[in-house]
Specification:
It is a single chain. By secondary structure, the protein is α+β, with helices and mostly antiparallel strands. The protein has ten helices and 16 strands. The strands form three sheets. Strands 1, 2, 3, 5, 6, 7, 8, 10, 11, 12, 13 and 14 form a twelve-stranded mixed sheet that branches. A hairpin with a 3-residue loop joins strand 6 and strand 7. The longest helix is centred in the middle third of the chain and has 22 residues, at 230-251. Bound molecules: acetyl coenzyme *A (ACO). Acetyl coenzyme *A (ACO) binds at residues 120, 124, 144-147, 174-177, 208, 210, 212, 219, 246, 311, 315, 317-318, 350-354. Keywords: Hydrolase, Mitochondrion, Repeat, Serine esterase, Transit peptide. Residues 83-215, 295-407 form the HotDog ACOT-type domain.
Length: 445
């Protein structure tokens, strides 16, 4: 590996230093880090879509011709290395005040919803870099987000006055799917970059993206991935384990099988705690002190999905859906906990179905589990077309927040709510390490 590429690769593994001069791309192509605004432009270039909505049908017609470039088997595609897909993106919040406004909350913190949008675009670009075919300008692949496996926040504060840097690369591939690992770092200096800037890690994310054919109608093979050293071998093994974990999680879903005996005891205990001791009845339920019924924690929203929010394939951009769901979840946690909550983990967001432009997007959010200062919020997303009343679930989002003070206990009333409680508890327990609350931990909507 060339020296510069080796340095970049090493930087991705730990603390990122020397903000300037970092690069992205394959071994043979070392460039400056991309500006965040270039990411979506680059994606449009790779996919060859129009920037004007009225031309979108024509642009998609043109993409049909790319079908001939699709591989008939994975073996026919050359293997790639992790560094081939490695990219760096700069979000110069500190040095660009106009950009900063887009990311700013009224409390002078960073809008986490905007970060989710950036991660989604970055994840797609990483996958295009992995599958880059130098013989065609436009890619025959349509890459979509299928799963946000995990986003873990580190405990450093996110300031809108310091530059942010993202890195990402493909860490595992299946036949048509790819796992992408992304990291986010923040500069330790305000307003301007110094040649000796240090970037500290603030976030770790794992997404799964899927390759589809040029019209986004059927599956398409992705290039194989070969490890170059022991660490990369471990990442690939971890990718395999992640796949098995997801399958195991989904086969024990409470939508498919009954809760285990420990969980059944939890639910019965909660039920007994809400029985009115003055009556001998299963029907008289009262709330214990410092507790809230789950049904009283709901918030809902409706959005019309305008063309402005479309992705490169003229469906609604996954990042937009995540931002909307996150902001509703944050408002739910805030009104429940009575103080400003901080996001700790985003977990297992599955994009089951694409959302068409023009759909009505219904989001329902509720607190489904609490413990100490933690609030687990679930957001259910459904769409309906304007001319049909039929609703279809497109996503379920799970967010873990932390409040500055201890929050009330949550009590389910119905069996359905009890399942939501257990599902929330499972997601909460899957959180890697509980974050220690810090006063300067300032990630808000
Ligand atoms: C960047 C953006 O804005 S994209 C917009 C947001 N995303 C979307 O709109 C995507 C909406 N979802 C979909 O269209 C569909 O669910 C699809 C196309 C992603 C998957 O459809 P499926 O019928 O599950 O496809 P299929 O069974 O062929 O699976 C395709 C691959 O996805 C993988 N996959 C499917 N579900 C999951 C999951 N929950 N977690 C991880 N991988 C998954 C499969 O393992 C398979 O990978 P492999 O070929 O490497 O083994």
């Amino acid at each position: 590996m060339k020296r510069a590429a080796m340095r970049l690769w090493t930087l991705n593994k730990g603390l990122l230093t020397h903000g300037r001069g970092l690069a992205y791309g394959s071994e043979n192509k070392i460039c400056k880090p991309l500006h965040i605004q270039e990411v979506r432009n680059k994606l449009r270039e790779i996919v060859g879509v129009s920037t004007i909505w009225r031309d979108h049908v024509k642009a998609m017609e043109e993409r049909k011709l790319l079908h001939n470039f699709l591989a008939t088997s994975q073996k026919a595609l050359p293997p790639r290395k992790m560094k081939d897909s490695y990219i760096e993106v700069l979000l110069p919040l500190g040095s660009d005040p106009d950009l900063r406004d887009k990311y700013l909350t009224v409390q002078n913190t960073v809008r986490f919803g905007r970060i989710l949008e950036d991660l989604d675009s970055l994840g797609v670009l990483v996958c295009y870099m992995h599958n880059q075919n130098h013989s065609t300008k436009m890619s025959p692949l349509s890459i979509v987000t299928v799963l946000v496996d995990k986003i873990d926040m580190c405990k450093y504060s996110l300031s809108p006055e310091q530059d942010i840097k993202f890195t990402g690369h493909v860490s595992w591939v299946g036949k048509t799917s790819m796992e992408v690992k992304m990291k986010m770092f923040q500069s330790s200096y305000s307003f301007h970059m110094h040649s000796d800037d240090k970037f500290w890690p603030v976030l770790d994310a794992t997404f799964v993206m899927v390759a589809r054919d040029s019209e986004n109608k059927g599956p398409a093979f992705v290039n194989p991935l070969v490890p170059e050293n022991k660490e990369e071998e471990e990442l690939i093994t971890q990718g395999e384990l992640n796949k098995s974990r997801r399958i195991a999680f989904s086969t024990t879903s409470l939508l498919k099988v009954a809760p285990n005996s420990e969980e059944r005891n939890v639910i019965h205990e909660l039920f007994l705690n809400t029985l009115d001791p003055k009556t001998i009845s299963f029907q008289s339920r009262i709330l214990p002190p410092k507790a809230v019924w789950m049904e009283d924690t709901k918030l809902k929203s409706l959005d019309i999905c305008h063309p402005q929010e479309r992705n490169i394939f003229n469906r609604i951009f996954g990042g937009f859906l995540m931002r909307k769901a996150y902001e509703l979840a944050w408002a739910t946690a805030c009104s429940f906990g009575g103080s400003r909550p901080y996001v700790v983990t985003v977990d297992d967001i599955m994009f089951q179905k694409p959302v068409e432009v023009g759909s009505l997007l219904f989001l329902s959010s509720q607190v489904c589990f609490t413990q100490d200062n933690y609030i687990q919020v679930r957001v259910h997303s459904e769409v309906a077309s304007l001319d049909s009343r039929e609703h279809m679930t497109t996503n379920v989002f799970h967010f873990t927040f932390m409040s500055e003070k201890e929050v009330p206990l949550i009590f389910p009333k119905t069996y359905g709510e009890s399942m939501l409680y257990l599902d929330g508890q499972r997601h909460f327990k899957s959180m890697s390490t509980p974050v220690i609350l810090k006063k300067n931990y300032t990630v808000e909507p």
